[in-house]
User: Which sequence fits this backbone?
């Protein structure tokens, strides 16, 4: 960025007029809420006990870390956010926060979240959080997003790590059970994002982001969506089969998993554009219900177990 | 001896930029204060009952 002779121009480039709300929006609060919820579930269902206050500190640090990675994503993606209708009004493309301010905010919040988690909870969970931020900001945002249609498949690992971080915060270790929770979100990510990409493919094409529908076509994307929902079905049931979730979860995971596959098949069979778009939108909305429902049942059932003496 | 002081050439902020900077400064102060409280409370929680179990 060139520094102007005129001090006023210099300040306009480097100092924004962003409010607290803008900075909060940079942290992607909707993504953060999903991270908070899945991390909380990982932390609660993990064996052993953690002091509720320490648990709350862990969830807070994980939430801030996830928010910081969202800020770094918006810092790097400001150019493509400016050409997509869905992201046009974000604080950086709208001109309220400068890119430099966002970068500084993201880096500082990343460092604070990892340090707080490490110093106050444990260093394994802090290392996992640092890896998650690095994976989302560098591997996904800077590298994969603009270079391969497998971007959200591999990048999905960052979104899948929070329950494992929660588990590590509670136990100081990671186990097969936490890998299963990771696998559920990892396999859920492609059908979730590709359903949205089928509806918004024009936006992604304009921004030059190689999403699956733009690169391999809608037909191939629909086939792959079905494949991932079929793989997700046993992964979703696995917590029950492995014994760290009860029969209510078992039934819910089978019902939700079958409904997810059925809706994916609906998308696959869509022939003409309009009905296919409607089916894709329905699948996208159901994917949110699927993940929230699955983790909510896991959490509630785990908390209710002592009440029924199980 | 002349006492004239030339104004320093520096970055000039618009009133809107100044207002948002003030809000940011307050937010940073609150954040740092919050961290102090968080570390203090965590120390107390981790020490637990041992906080009273020490020679006076």
Assistant:
């Amino acid at each position: 960025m060139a520094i102007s002779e005129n001090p006023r121009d210099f300040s306009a480039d480097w100092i924004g007029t962003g409010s607290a709300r803008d900075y909060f929006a940079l942290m992607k609060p909707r993504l953060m809420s999903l991270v908070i919820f899945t991390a909380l579930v990982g932390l609660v269902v993990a064996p052993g006990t953690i002091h509720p206050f320490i648990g709350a500190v862990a969830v807070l640090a994980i939430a801030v870390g996830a928010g910081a990675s969202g800020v770094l994503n918006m810092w790097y993606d400001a150019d493509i956010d400016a050409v997509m209708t869905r992201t046009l009004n974000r604080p950086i493309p709208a001109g309220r926060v400068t890119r430099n301010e966002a970068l500084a905010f993201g880096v500082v919040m990343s460092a604070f979240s990892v340090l707080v988690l490490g110093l106050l909870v444990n260093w394994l969970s802090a290392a996992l959080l640092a890896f998650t931020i690095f994976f989302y900001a560098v591997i996904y945002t800077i590298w994969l997003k603009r270079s391969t249609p497998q971007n959200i498949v591999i990048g999905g690992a960052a979104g899948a790590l929070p329950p494992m971080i929660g588990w590590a915060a509670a136990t100081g270790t990671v186990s097969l059970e936490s890998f299963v929770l990771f696998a559920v979100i990892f396999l859920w990510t492609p059908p979730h994002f590709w359903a949205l990409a089928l509806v918004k493919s024009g936006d992604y094409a304009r921004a030059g982001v190689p999403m699956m529908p733009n690169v391999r076509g809608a037909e191939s994307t629909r086939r792959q969506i079905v494949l991932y929902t079929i793989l997700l079905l046993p992964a979703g049931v696995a917590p029950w089969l492995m014994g760290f979730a009860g029969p209510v979860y078992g039934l819910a995971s089978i019902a939700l998993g079958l409904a997810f596959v059925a809706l994916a098949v609906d998308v696959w069979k869509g022939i003409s554009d309009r009905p296919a778009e409607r089916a894709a939108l329905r699948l996208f909305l159901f994917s949110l219900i699927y993940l929230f429902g699955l983790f909510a049942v896991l959490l509630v059932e785990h908390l209710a177990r002592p009440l029924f003496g199980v | 001896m002349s006492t004239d002081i030339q104004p320093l050439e520096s970055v000039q902020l618009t009133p809107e930029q100044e207002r948002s900077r003030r809000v940011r400064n307050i937010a940073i102060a609150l954040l740092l204060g919050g961290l102090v409280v968080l570390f203090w409370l965590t120390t107390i929680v981790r020490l637990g009952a041992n906080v009273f179990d020490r020679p006076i």
Remarks:
- Residues 160 and 182 of chain A are 5 Å apart (CA to CA).
- Chain A touches chain B at residues 7-8, 10-12, 14-20, 23, 51, 53-54, 57, 112, 116, 119-120 (CB under 8 Å).
- Chain A has a mean pLDDT of 92.
- The longest helix of chain A spans residues 273-304.
